[in-house]
Amino acid sequence: MTQAAFPDLRLRRTRRTGWSRAMVRETTLSPSNLIWPLFVCDGAGAEEPISSLPGVSRWSVDRIVDRARDAVAAGIPCLALFPYTQADRRTEDGSEALNPDNLMCRATAAIKQALGDDIGVLTDVALDPYTSHGQDGLIDATGYVLNDETVDVLVGQALNQARAGADIIAPSDMMDGRIGAIREALEVEGFCHVQIMSYAAKYASAFYGPFRDAVGSRGLLKGDKKTYQMDPANAEEALREVAQDLAEGADSVMVKPGLPYLDIVRAVKDHFAVPVYAYQVSGEYAMIEAAVAAGAGDRDALVLETLLAFRRAGASGVLTYHALHAARLLNE
Ligand SMILES: NCC(=O)CCC(=O)O
Ligand SMILES: [Mg+2]
C-alpha cells in the first residue's frame, strides 16, 4: 500500500480533538479484561497488609466474599485465589494442597455460595504455597524438582479445587505434561465444564519477590526455579510450551510476567489465535507503586496505560493487583 506524503499526509489531523482520537482508537480496555488476584489467610474478620505490595492485603475467608462483591460491582469477571499457608501446615510434600478444607477450597466455596455464576473463580495449581522448601513441586535429595511425581500431586490438587467449585484451574507450576493429566482427571471425575488456563510461558523472573511475601514462601525458598520455569532469553521455546499445553487441553494460556514479555504475548496470539492472558506480576505492581511514592508518575495514568498496552499486544485479559482500582477508573 502506498500512502500519501506530507503535506497531504498529516498524521496529527486525526489526533487534534478528543472525539476524533476516540474514532480512530484501535484498542479498548474494559473491566471485563481484568482478573483480580486475591490472597486468602486464616482467621475471621482478618485483613493483613503486605508491606512489599502496598495497597494489597490478605483477607480471611469471610472478608474475601466482600472483595468478590466489590469485583462484581465493578464489572470484573474473575478472581484468582492464592493462599497464605501457616508455617506449621507446610510440609516437604505440600500435602495441605490436597486438604479439602484448606484455605483455597474454603474461599472458593464461600465465594461460589454467595455469588454463584456472577463471578468466576480461578484457582492456582502448584505446590509453592504449601511446601516447607518453597519449590512448586516435590524435590529429590539434591533439591531437584521431580516432574512426573509432582504431576500426580497436581492432579489431586486440581480435583480438590474443582470439588470446591473452582471454575478455572490455573496450573502455574511449569511441570511437563500436567495439563493433559489434569484435563483427563477432570473429564473422568465429571468436571467437563471446568476450564484450564495454563501458565504456559512462565519465566524464571526477578519480578516475583513481593508475591513470595504474600504467600509466605520468600524466606523458605533456597536457590531458584530455573530448572522448570523458562529462561528470560527464550521466545521460540514459549511457542513450544504453548503448543504443548493447547494440545493437552488448555482452554486458554498465560504469559508471565507481563510488561517485559509483551513480545511473547504478541507472538503467542499471532501463532495460535487462542485466548491469551498476561500476568502483571507483583514486582511490576510494586514498581508502579514505588514510582508513585517517589513522585515519578501518576498512579491512575500509569495503571491504565500499562493495562492498555497488554490489550494492544493481543491479550484477552490481564491478571493485575490493580484490577479493582482500574475497573473503578474505567467505570467513572
Ligand atoms: N503463581 C502465581 C505467581 O507466581 C504470581 C507471581 C507474582 O505476582 O509475582
Ligand atoms: Mg509446559
TrEMBL record:
Pathway: Porphyrin-containing compound metabolism; protoporphyrin-IX biosynthesis; coproporphyrinogen-III from 5-aminolevulinate: step 1/4
SMART domains named among the record's database cross-references: ALAD (SM01004)
GO cellular component: cytosol
Annotated catalytic residues: 202, 256
Gene Ontology terms, MF aspect: porphobilinogen synthase activity; zinc ion binding
Keyword annotations of the record: Heme biosynthesis, Lyase, Magnesium, Metal-binding, Porphyrin biosynthesis
Pfam families: ALAD (PF00490)
Record SUPFAM superfamilies: Aldolase (SSF51569)
InterPro entries on file: ALAD (IPR001731), ALAD_AS (IPR030656), Aldolase_TIM (IPR013785)
EC primary class: lyase
EC number: 4.2.1.24
Record: residues binding Mg(2+): 241
Catalysed transformations (reactions): 2 5-aminolevulinate = porphobilinogen + 2 H2O + H(+)
Keyword check for Magnesium: yes
The keyword Lyase belongs to this UniProt entry's keyword annotation: yes
One GO biological process term: protoporphyrinogen IX biosynthetic process
PROSITE patterns the record matches: D_ALA_DEHYDRATASE
Entry similarity comment: Belongs to the ALAD family.
Classification via NCBIfam families: PRK09283.1 (NF006762)
Subunit composition and interactions: Homooctamer.
Protein name as annotated: Delta-aminolevulinic acid dehydratase
Provenance organism: Sphingopyxis bauzanensis
